[in-house]
């Protein structure tokens, strides 16, 4: 009986681990889908050769117009929300969910389809924020982000500042160390992907999104 209990526990752990690995891979591959690149290709434009060379919504918006930028932004959020949400129906441990939550962001920044040169991971990070904070707090978060963007008029600076709040927000909502670490991981990733923007901000030449 003791052996059977141990075997059951072992089987459960093995299944959870396999599920975790499966969802991390699915999250990464879904996050890797380069919507900005695909949509600009329909217009016979390689977005990597335009503007900042980035495949995210901001650069697509600057190059192809606001509605295309918005479309890419929404798709980049969805490609992360879907795998994270599905995983949340099967995985119960915070650390597992934290690992799954970051996998689409890593996929977006280092996409397998584009030689691991992708976007900056902001929209995919937002997807994770929506799921962790829930829709009510997410709306407050978005309103705060929009206000900050309106005041600063620089997308990169707004994103760099807003991600600094994530460890605290995740802690207040979940009381989970796993999610606090996730918040710090997002912060480090977003600041790293924005290193060129930070250079331009310091030189005072970072373009404003609202003239």
Descriptive account of the structure:
The chain is mostly helical and 211 residues long. The protein has ten helices and no strands. α8 runs antiparallel to α9 (177-193). The longest helix is centred in the middle third of the chain and has 31 residues, at 122-152. The relative contact order is 0.11. The model has no long low-confidence stretch (mean pLDDT 92).
In short:
By secondary structure, the chain is mostly helical. It has helices at 2-31, 35-42, 57-64, 66-88, 94-109, 122-152, 155-162, 166-174, 177-193, 195-203.
Structural class: mainly alpha
State the share of residues found in helices, binned by percent: over 70%
Look at the structure and give the mean pLDDT. 92
Whole-number radius of gyration? 19 Å
Q: Residue ranges: pLDDT <50 for 5 or more in a row?
A: none
Question: How are helices and strands ordered from N to C?
Answer: HHHHHHHHHH
Largest beta-sheet characterization = none
Number of strands: 0
- The DSSP helix count reads 10
Please state roughly what percent of the residues sit in beta strands, choosing from under 5%, 5-15%, 15-25%, 25-35%, 35-45% or over 45%.
under 5%
Shape: globular
Distance between the termini: 72 Å
Topology:
Layout lengths: L1 H30 L3 H8 L14 H8 L1 H23 L5 H16 L12 H31 L2 H8 L3 H9 L2 H17 L1 H9 L8
Helix pairs in contact: 1-4, 1-5, 3-4, 4-5, 4-6, 5-6, 5-9, 6-7, 8-9
């Amino acid at each position: 009986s003791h052996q059977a209990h141990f075997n059951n526990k072992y089987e459960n752990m093995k299944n959870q681990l396999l599920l975790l690995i499966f969802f991390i891979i699915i999250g990464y591959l879904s996050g890797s889908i380069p919507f900005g690149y695909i949509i600009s290709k329909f217009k016979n434009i390689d977005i990597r050769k335009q503007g900042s060379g980035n495949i995210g919504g901001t650069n697509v918006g600057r190059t192809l117009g606001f509605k295309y930028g918005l479309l890419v932004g929404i798709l980049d959020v969805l490609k992360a929300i879907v795998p994270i949400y599905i995983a949340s129906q099967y995985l119960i441990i915070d650390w597992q969910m934290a690992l799954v939550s970051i996998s689409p962001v890593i996929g977006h920044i280092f996409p397998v389809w584009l030689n691991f040169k992708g976007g900056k991971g902001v929209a995919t990070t937002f997807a994770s924020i929506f799921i962790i904070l829930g829709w009510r707090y997410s709306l407050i978060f978005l309103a705060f982000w929009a206000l900050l963007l309106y005041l600063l008029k620089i997308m990169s600076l707004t994103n760099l500042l807003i991600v600094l709040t994530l460890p605290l927000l995740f802690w207040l909502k979940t009381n989970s160390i796993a999610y606090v670490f996730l918040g710090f991981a997002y912060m480090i990733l977003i600041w790293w992907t924005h290193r060129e923007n930070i250079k331009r901000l310091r030189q005072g030449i970072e373009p404003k999104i609202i003239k």
